[in-house]
Amino acid sequence: MALLTGGCAWDGPQSSLAPRSDFGREILYVYAIVTWATAIIAVVVFVLLAWVLVRYRDRPGAAPAAQTRGHSLLEIGWTIAPALILLIIAIPTIQVIFRTQGRAAPGALDVEVRGWQWWWEFRYPALGVVTANELHLPIGQAVVLHLEGPDVIHSFWVPPIGGKRDVVPGRHNQMSFVVDTPGVYDGQCAEFCGASHANMRIRLVAETPGEFERWVEAQKAPPGESAGPAADGQAIYARLACVGCHTIQGVSGGVIGPDLTHVGSRRTIAAGLLPNTPENLAAWLRAPERIKPGVKMPNLGLGEADARALAAYLTSLK
Length: 318
Ligand code: CUA
Hints:
- By secondary structure, the protein is α+β, with helices and mostly antiparallel strands.
- It has helices spanning 2-5, 22-55, 72-101, 209-220, 229-239, 242-245, 278-286, 288-291, 304-316; strands spanning 109-116, 119-124, 129-132, 134-138, 142-148, 154-156, 165-167, 173-178, 183-188, 201-207, 247-248, 252-253, 268-269, 274-275.
- It contains 9 helices and 14 strands.
- β6 (154-156) and β7 (165-167) form a beta hairpin.
- It is elongated, with a radius of gyration of 27 Å.
- Dinuclear copper ion binds at residues 115, 118, 154, 189, 191-193, 197, 200.
């Protein structure tokens, strides 16, 4: 039991038992009803079972137990009781399904979520912001995520915020909610999507409206002038294949990989795999396939010095 339950925590980083949004609370409400209903059933069944085992156990010299066939009262009873239990579970479940699939409040913040092998793209059409892997949202405001996928099926899941929702190519799914507590919440892709499915993490940064506004302003500003090693890095970036896949405002316009305009402002790199430090960035640039198996980003055969310069440039993009 100690080994089995050692990883359990009430409020672990990916716990759905400590909800931080209205959607998360709805899910926990249904979960609690189902848990209590099944716990009561388990207690009744185990107590009855124990009683039968003791009461009717084989004793030396005892006659065989009486066999009963056709007991209308019992049969009606064990038909009605499960039907009632299912009804008790079904009514709130269906109510919550409708509530969590409903339309968002007018004036909600729209965010387009795209699942790529193996990273997340977040676009804020009304704000003119595009970012990757870290979803910034203001607390206390209704948000609608529009989920779409360009390659295979993924599933967006940040457990404290709410249930999973699939990201399906050619289909528009959406989920809406209001985050109520500031914090950084972990999530991950919850639908097997290839070699690095497990390396497709999400960070949801829930901020006060003021902090969110400052973040948006910073993301909309063009990157500053590079100097020193960062300027060398920028020259390397412009010379290499990077420009074909990535966007950096005013520098390149590729759309296959994550937008890097403000990559230096993110907490992590490689879809949440590593803290965003110049050392980790350089290691990633030199051999991305060693950090994320199957990654679409090619190994460009960068030398140590070039990787460091490029990392200095990317780190400077705050
Ligand atoms: Cu994307 Cu699993």
